[in-house]
Design brief:
The chain is an alpha+beta fold. It has one domain (10-498): Peroxisomal Thiolase, Chain A, domain 1. It has 19 helices and 17 strands. It has helices spanning 10-14, 31-38, 42-48, 62-77, 101-114, 135-148, 237-259, 263-269, 281-296, 302-312, 316-324, 329-335, 344-353, 357-366, 371-374, 384-398, 430-434, 439-443, 451-458, and strands at residues 16-23, 27-30, 52-54, 84-90, 128-129, 155-164, 177-186, 192-194, 200-203, 210-211, 234-235, 272-275, 408-414, 418-426, 447-448, 473-479, 493-498. Strands 1, 4, 5, 6, 7, 8, 9, 12, 13 and 14 form a 10-stranded mixed β-sheet that branches. Strand 4 (84-90), helix 5 (101-114) and strand 5 form a beta-alpha-beta unit. Helix 4 (62-77) packs across helix 5, helix 9 (281-296) crosses helix 13 and helix 10 crosses helix 13. The chain is globular and about 70 Å long.
């Protein structure tokens, strides 16, 4: 297998992540009682989705969550704020169409002043990145490039945060969540090295895959059951799943071509696989699909593929042809309201493969790290993949696993759609940085919502949120209401640091 190191350029080879910090709101919905409320099957929801999700209360939003994650990162890792030259925000939950990461910067400065530290450097880049659930990974790539070029000698912080909410009664309701993950990026990383030189990218326009068109807020059929302006997406579950699988395949192919190996060889040698994780089952579905693709493209595994196809009652030739095809999903959608799955034979084989002992062993050995923690996070959109990586690295440290230098991969995805497959590895001494991630502290002391509380908060009923004291956190203090000729702040949030 080819080396994961770039052919040239020491700085590009060494850039990576030196620390991670998680923030989630304290309000939690346990999916077991939720299943009782909604008449869903708990065993199925637990295996497909997870065990719980967090709810963003009225005094929080994506900016407060992002700022709280950044603040924790700075304090947990003893970061000198003056050395930070880049603060990137990846999100699809922005509430302001003008400002973005600079809002996070303002809150962090206030909190740092309250703790006796100085503010972030005035010479600080504050970009925001948006592409559905891939914005955080795009922000991470930009930060890696920054510290490897004009940001020499300085630090970068990337924060990915989102609020995933769906209408009550929709098929996506159980896949909600809220939270943010902050990452410290350095040219000489102390936790994990990210290999951009061998990263694979892919994108294709998918039309109404998973969208949030602003015009929906002005249409009479939008969010009828909610008493507030929601951020519920426009989505088509089956179409979106096919788009996810299709784009991930192309990103992974691009990465493998750069690495100089076959998919079959790579899956055998890689130590850990982390995928975008909107819910528990989707990475499993993606990996089974990729494994069938590997079989279809490997002459040495023909007999294995034949046996799988025979049991799945599909033709081997059909699977091979589908794996060679490049379907235009959007064109198919335009031709018919509900387009057919372009991979019916491969999908049938993948479904059967998921019951295979060897595949279950792959999940246990290469996709289990951090899984127990991720099951309690819910869907974090942009923060879903970074959160899983943080939980996985932390678990590896707690189990004292020897993983330095071993190849791993992160596969990010954003609906619409685009994907990134990026090799990475842990550096020598990574354990010290991993000890400070603190996911257990971030998840501590949840407030479990009753059915009445959850439904009222979701529907925007005033006063529905249970009272609790913030714990050294940034919150929304008030919303501007002035709309005068010489001064306007209508709808602008103001923030404060409380509990410190």
């Amino acid at each position: 297998m080819a080396s994961n190191q770039p052919a040239s350029g020491r700085a590009a080879a060494s850039a990576g992540v030196s620390g991670m910090a998680l923030y989630v709101p304290r309000l939690r919905v346990d999916l077991e009682p939720w299943c009782e409320w909604t008449k869903n099957t708990w065993d199925k929801v637990k295996s497909v989705v997870g065990q719980s999700f967090r709810v963003c209360p009225p005094r929080e939003n994506v900016y407060t969550m992002a700022a709280n994650a950044v603040l924790r990162l700075i304090l947990q890792y003893g970061i000198d704020p003056k050395r930070v030259g880049f603060l990137g925000l990846g999100t699809e939950s922005s509430t302001d169409n003008s400002a973005g990461a600079v809002i996070v910067r303002g809150m962090v400065d206030e909190a740092l002043s309250s703790t006796g530290m100085g503010p972030l450097s005035r010479n600080l880049e504050v970009p925001e990145f948006k592409h559905a659930c891939l914005g955080g990974i795009y922000a991470l790539k930009a930060a890696l490039r920054y510290v490897s070029s004009d940001g020499e000698g300085r630090l970068a912080i990337v924060v990915a945060g989102d609020i995933a909410e769906y209408e009550r009664g929709s098929t996506g309701e159980q896949t909600q969540g809220a939270g943010a993950v902050a990452m410290l990026v350095e040219r000489e990383p102390r936790m994990l090295r990210v290999d951009l030189t061998h990263a694979g990218s892919a994108s294709a326009y998918r039309g109404p895959d998973f969208r949030k068109p602003f015009a929906r807020h002005f249409m009479p059929d939008y969010a009828k059951g909610s008493k507030r302006g929601g951020d519920f997406p426009v989505f088509s579950g089956r179409y979106s799943t096919v788009a996810y699988l299709d784009e991930v395949v192309h990103a992974v192919d691009a990465m493998l071509e750069k690495v100089g190996t076959t998919d079959d060889e790579y899956y055998r040698s890689v130590r850990a696989l982390f995928f975008h994780r909107p819910y528990r089952f989707m990475p499993i579905q993606a990996m089974s699909f990729l494994m069938v693709r590997a079989m279809a493209r490997s002459g040495r595994r023909r007999s294995e593929l034949e046996a799988l196809c025979a049991e799945a009652q599909v033709k081997v030739e059909a699977v091979v042809d589908e794996m060679r095809a490049h379907p235009d999903l959007y064109a198919a959608l335009q031709r018919q309201k509900n387009p057919d799955d372009p991979y019916p034979a491969a999908s049938a084989a993948a479904r059967l493969l998921r019951n295979d002992k060897a595949f279950r062993e792959l999940l246990a050995t290469k996709m289990s790290l951090g899984g127990a923690t991720a099951a309690h996070l819910g869907n974090l959109y942009c923060a879903a993949l970074p959160a899983w990586i943080a939980a996985g690295v932390e678990e590896a440290q707690q189990k004292r696993l020897s993983m330095a230098g071993e190849p791993m991969v992160m596969v990010g995805y954003g609906s619409g759609d685009a994907a990134e497959a990026i090799p990475f590895s842990l550096v020598e001494g990574w354990e010290e940085a991993a000890k400070r991630i603190g996911t257990a502290d971030a998840l501590a002391d949840p407030i479990d919502l009753t059915r009445g509380q959850y439904e009222a908060i979701h529907d925007g009923v005033p006063g529905a949120c249970p009272e609790y004291a913030p714990r050294k956190e940034l919150v929304i203090s008030r919303v501007g209401a002035r709309h005068e000729q010489d001064f306007q702040d209508l709808g602008v949030d103001y923030y404060e640091y409380v509990g410190g």
